[in-house]
Amino acid sequence: MNSWSPWHGCHRISEGCLHCYMHRSDLRYDRNPDHVYKTSMFDLPRRHCRDGSFKLKPDSYDVFTCGSSDFFLEEADAWRLEAYQMMKERPDLHFFIITKRIERLYEVLPEDWQEGYDNVIIGCTVENQKMADQRLPFFLNAPIAHRNIICSPLLEKLNLKPYLDPKKIELVAAGGESGSNARICEFEWITDIRSQCLEKHISFHYHQTGTYLRKDKKIYHIPKREEYHQAKKSGLDWRSDQL
Q1: What is the structure's pLDDT at 242?
Q2: For 74-89, how does the pLDDT look when each residue is reduced to its tens digit (9 = 90+)?
Q3: Is a pLDDT exceeding 80 seen at residue 59?
């Protein structure tokens, strides 16, 4: 998956932000992670190579969007319409946005948004039950063409059943927290979410184990380079079209 960061910088707003990788990285290089600015890659979807082809190739398809900020951050309101316009200009790509600020969706929307652009996928992050109950009711009723629920970093057992509408939610992803100070993720929390998804015939993706994973009463320390591999190796991923 390619990435596009039209702006950089963010502010912590909930428990899931405590050990934010972007904050850690910026502080390591003596930068202020709360400073929000438009990046030099803002217009990346429009850029071309010398041969005239797009730098973001159609064969790359999925584009992880705004990974070092939040797409719906207040400071980015002035830039968001142009970002939407660039997404609209590239129907050959799918732009994947993850947010903890879904309630700000309506603040800046294109006039032709209607029920959402078909090439924009929005993932709403819920790290605990409090955030699930706060964010997901709005998320389910917002004008979005493709919705994912992102349970990461997963901090406790979740009951997602009230929100798992297969007509509205295409996929649920779950994963533990990464980093030396990461909070422990229980493997049972992951499998429980998976079971809830299978019951509703909604696709499930276990995207990373996290640094510390408790399984069968034993805590495993998993190196960063192994988190994705070990999650995939578990065989928990499930697609609704497997039925």
Answers
A1: 62
A2: 999 999 999 999 999 9
A3: no
44 three-class SS = helix
CA distances to 84, 171, 190 from 101, in Å: 17, 19, 24
Q: Are strands 94-99 and 146-151 parallel, antiparallel or unpaired?
A: unpaired
Q: Which among 128, 187, 184, 132 has a CA at the least distance from the CA of 156? A: 128
3-state secondary structure of 95: strand
d(CA 57, CA 93): 8
Which alpha helices (DSSP H) does the chain contain, by range? 21-28, 77-89, 129-141, 187-200, 224-233
Alpha-carbon separation of residue 31 from 25, 28, 67 (angstroms): 8, 7, 17
Residue where the block lists tokens 């969007």:
65
With 90 as the cut, is the pLDDT of residue 224 above it?
A: yes
| pTM, full prediction | 0.96
Mean pLDDT lowest among 19-23, 65-69, 84-88? 19-23
Query: What is the DSSP code string of 163-216?
Result: G--TTTEEEEEEE---STTPPPEEHHHHHHHHHHHHHHT-EEEEEE--SEEEET
